[in-house]
Design goal:
The protein has 414 residues and is an alpha+beta fold. It contains 16 helices and 13 strands. Helices cover 39% and strands 20% of the residues. The longest helix has 20 residues.
């Protein structure tokens, strides 16, 4: 069983400086400079005007002229969310988190730690609970919820279900200190189709579905999958699977060490001074003893803006490197995207690479070198685009008349 932990309006609360600021009136996160002009998370009072996250800025202001736009704080959000994930992991959970404010983990491990007796097999306990009349929450879930709340020390909504999307629906539905359980497609049937907005891959389908008169996930799940796929493509297939309670397996993150450098700037820093500050920042980061000679695959360049708010840009290098010149060349191009003068610059390592890139053995042959370079390229591609960036075609039934059955995609490994 999957458990979802939802901290409502997390990014908006961090950017506004606390929930007290949201009580003054309707508010929303302003679009980031240089990005598409759509609002971010919105307050509860803004939702009463029909404003929702992802709405175009002009339409949001037309619906709510008194809407207060709060400058986004991506650096502050990332720091605060990292602390929340560390608290969750301290309770024994293996956490997956794609967006700040929402985390998932498998309940099996925590159920055995905090659920009491009879929780050696949470899946079997869930099947037994579903066969009961009337069904009720499994007894071990209260222990897991108590452990999560004790670790977080923050108000959070907690949901559970057989898949990631079912758990998300339970967390959105939860209102009290008890967790909400959603049992697959029957539990999702009454949920509004707007719940799909919480999945970036299918968020764009909400408005077309509502125009077609499909307002609940149950209505979407009753449609034939080929019909939905023909109208909306791969995203339609995913939305149909979600509406029927199916989802991908969790991919828990690997907790990593934090390695970063911060440099305070003069308020009148110009472009040349910013370049010199970047040179110093890169040199300080590479000189840190904690790096232990490792290369860097991906880094995060951030800035605290003079006008308020922060700016954050993730940079994935073409290959894992530890060369200061090449790093400055790549990061300098991103520094040009800075939307306003900055008070400080920050450079943090997101993912490390192998040590001593480019070093080869004395008698290393060409085949071994090519294999090592290909393996490194695969790792770099997955760091930039995710685990599905490198796949191979695996023949399953080449004689089948159905093209989809002839071959499948599998992870590419050497």
């Amino acid at each position: 069983m999957v458990v979802a932990v939802l901290l409502s309006r997390f990014e908006l609360v961090i950017a506004a400086g606390g929930r007290e600021a949201l009580a003054r009136g309707p508010a929303a996160l302003a679009p980031e400079a240089g990005r598409e002009q759509r609002v971010g998370e919105v307050s509860a009072s803004a939702e009463t005007f029909g404003v929702h996250a992802g709405m175009r800025l002009g339409e949001a202001l037309a619906r709510c002229p008194s809407l207060a736009l709060i400058p986004p704080d991506p650096m502050g959000v990332a720091d605060a969310w990292e602390k929340v994930l560390a608290r969750l992991e301290s309770s024994g959970a293996e956490v997956e988190s794609a967006t700040p404010g929402l985390a998932f983990f498998e309940a099996g491990g925590l159920a055995r730690l905090h659920g009491g007796r009879g929780t050696s097999d949470p899946a079997a306990a869930l099947r037994a609970r579903m066969s009961a009349h009337p069904p009720g929450p499994p007894p071990w879930l209260e222990g897991v919820v108590a452990a999560v709340r004790a670790a977080l020390r923050l108000p959070a909504r907690i949901g559970a279900g057989p898949s990631r999307f079912c758990a998300l629906a339970g967390a959105v539905r939860a209102r009290s200190r008890r967790a909400e359980l959603v049992d697959g497609a029957p539990g999702l049937a009454s949920e509004p189709v707007s719940l799909l907005r919480r999945r970036p891959e299918v968020s764009a389908l909400v408005e077309p579905l509502e125009r077609l008169g499909i307002t609940t996930l149950g209505q979407l799940g009753e449609l034939d999958r080929p019909v939905v796929a023909d109208r909306f493509g791969r995203s339609g297939e995913l939305a149909h699977d979600l509406a029927r309670g199916h989802d991908d397996d969790l991919r828990p993150r690997v907790p990593g060490e934090v390695l970063e450098e911060v440099l305070e700037l003069a308020e009148s820093a110009s472009g040349v001074q910013l370049e010199r500050a970047l040179v110093l920042l890169v040199d300080q980061l590479l000189a840190r003893r904690e790096r232990r000679g490792r290369t860097l695959r991906a880094v995060v360049l951030g800035a605290k803006l003079v006008e308020g708010g922060t700016w954050r840009e993730r940079v994935v290098f073409r290959e894992a490197l530890a060369d200061a010149g090449r790093m400055r060349l790549a990061l300098g191009q991103r520094l040009l995207l800075l939307p306003a003068p900055a008070e400080s610059l920050r450079l943090a390592v997101e993912r490390f690479g192998p040590p001593h890139a480019g070093a080869t053995a004395l008698f290393d042959d060409g085949t071994a070198q090519r294999t090592a370079r290909l393996r490194e390229a695969i790792g770099q591609a997955r760091a930039a685009a995710g685990p599905e960036a490198a796949l191979r075609v695996l023949e399953v039934d080449p004689d089948s008349r159905v093209p989809e059955r002839q071959a499948v995609l599998a992870p590419f490994e050497l």
